């Protein structure tokens, strides 16, 4: 098969957006992960930059949640990726009536 030059194309996109959650100092927090890949059906690998606030909760508790974002989550997922859990409480609480 001959090589084909496809130019400056974002050929790997679109890719699913993943929200990773963990407890840090007994509070829930989440971060947005825009690049995820499949390693195996029985194992999950999450790779985050060391500076992410959520890492301390993952290391301390050895637990995390992984959520694939669908269209109904986009606004909330965007918030998870634009602010740091170290600077703002990301917990989504139900409003009382």
Describe the structure.
This protein is of the alpha+beta class and 97 residues long. The chain has a domain at 18-82. The chain contains 2 helices and 3 strands. The chain has helices at 54-61, 74-82, and strands at 18-24, 27-33, 65-68. A 3-stranded antiparallel beta sheet has the order 2-1-3. The longest helix is centred in the last third of the chain and has 9 residues, at 74-82. The radius of gyration is 17 Å and the shape is globular. The N and C termini lie far apart (64 Å). The model has no long low-confidence stretch (mean pLDDT 81).
Mean pLDDT: 81
Poorly predicted runs:
none
Tell me about the biggest sheet? 3 strands, antiparallel
Q: With helices defined by DSSP (H or I, 4 residues minimum), what is the helix count?
A: 2
Kindly report the oligomeric state of this protein. Answer: single chain
Task: List how many beta strands DSSP finds.
Answer: 3
Order of helices and strands: EEHEH
Instruction: Indicate the structural class.
Output: alpha+beta
Distance between the termini: 64 Å
What percent of the residues sit in helical stretches (DSSP H or I)? 10-25%
β-strand percent reads: 15-25%
Largest sheet strand order: 2-1-3
Shape: globular
Radius of gyration: 17 Å
Features:
18% helix, globular, 2 helices, 97 residues, alpha+beta, three-stranded antiparallel β-sheet
Q: Summary?
A:
The protein contains two helices and three strands. By secondary structure, it is α+β, with helices and mostly antiparallel strands.
């Amino acid at each position: 098969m001959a090589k084909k030059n496809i130019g400056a194309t974002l050929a790997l996109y679109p890719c699913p957006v993943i929200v990773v959650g963990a407890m840090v100092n007994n509070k829930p927090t989440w971060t947005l992960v825009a690049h995820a890949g499949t390693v195996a059906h029985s194992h999950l690998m999450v790779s985050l930059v060391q500076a992410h606030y959520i890492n301390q909760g993952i290391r301390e508790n050895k637990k995390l949640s992984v959520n694939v974002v669908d269209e109904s989550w986009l606004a909330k997922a965007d918030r998870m990726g634009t602010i740091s859990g170290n600077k703002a409480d990301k917990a989504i609480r139900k409003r009382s009536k």
